[in-house]
Design goal:
Blueprint: E1 5-10, H1 12-39, E2 52-58, H2 62-70, E3 77-78, E4 81-84, E5 97-98, E6 110-118, H3 122-132, E7 138-146, E8 160-164, E9 170-171, E10 187-190, H4 192-204
Helix pairs in contact: 1-2
The chain binds inosinic acid and magnesium ion (MG).
Length: 205
């Protein structure tokens, strides 16, 4: 598998360090919200159960969220949303589509949507629309990677970003190409020949 990679953009150790920082920041910000709720009488400590909901966008956020929540020492629950935008062997967004029903009971909750990467913004734009309509107490977005603004077609306010990367197609740490390479522990680029080979195979299928 390593032979398929052209280069490493962010290595395993750098990811681990940054994810720990993001988790600590998120936890501190959420604890502040919960303390404010309690001060306003909106909830007591016992009611903190179920108030913080982490929502990874499947499937790309699966590795990131697993590490991120372990860097957040607080009560939280996990709910999933599934959005697809890169069908098969494609390296360009085809527009976001909901692939499963979105959780419908987020009113009054502190919600954190977690995704692998912010590219065109169509995925998180759609998720934002559907969750904001439920009137959560707060709504945050956290991504491991962000591509440059000029490729963005839909504006989303993402407050927690791991790394800014160039406008290149990357794999690893949950990100895939045609379903593969999610288990690469780094953020890496693929060799051109590999991309072409997978594309030819997909075209024949
Ligand atoms: P957006 O809707 O264009 O912002 O794209 C976001 C989704 O597309 C992410 O959740 C990823 O799953 C996928 N994606 C975007 N860029 C890449 C990439 O470079 N490699 C792999 N997947 C990507
Ligand atoms: Mg995704």
């Amino acid at each position: 598998m390593d032979h398929d990679l052209a280069g490493i953009l962010v290595d395993e150790q750098a990811i681990a360090d940054r994810v720990r920082e993001l988790g600590a920041r998120l936890a501190a910000d959420l604890e502040r919200d919960l303390a404010r709720d309690a001060a306003l009488g909106a909830s007591s400590d016992a009611d903190d159960f179920g108030r913080v909901v982490m929502i990874p966008v499947m499937t790309g956020a699966i590795v990131f969220v697993a590490d991120l929540i372990r860097a957040m020492p607080m009560r939280l629950s996990l709910r999933l949303v599934a959005v697809s935008s890169y069908p098969g062997a494609s390296v360009q967004s085809k527009g976001a589509k909901l692939a499963a029903e979105i959780p419908g009971d987020l009113a009054g909750k502190h919600v954190v949507v977690v995704d692998d990467i912010l590219d065109s913004g169509q995925t998180l734009g759609l998720v934002h629309e559907l969750i904001a309509a439920q009137k959560p107490a707060s709504l945050r977005f956290c991504v491991l990677l962000r591509k440059p603004d000029r490729v963005r077609r839909r504006a989303v306010d993402v407050q927690y970003v791991g790394f800014e990367i160039p406008d290149e197609f990357v794999v690893g740490y949950g990100l895939d190409f045609d379903g593969h390479y999610r288990n690469v522990p780094h953020i890496a680029t693929l060799r051109h020949e590999v991309v072409e080979r997978v594309r030819r195979r997909a075209a024949r299928a």
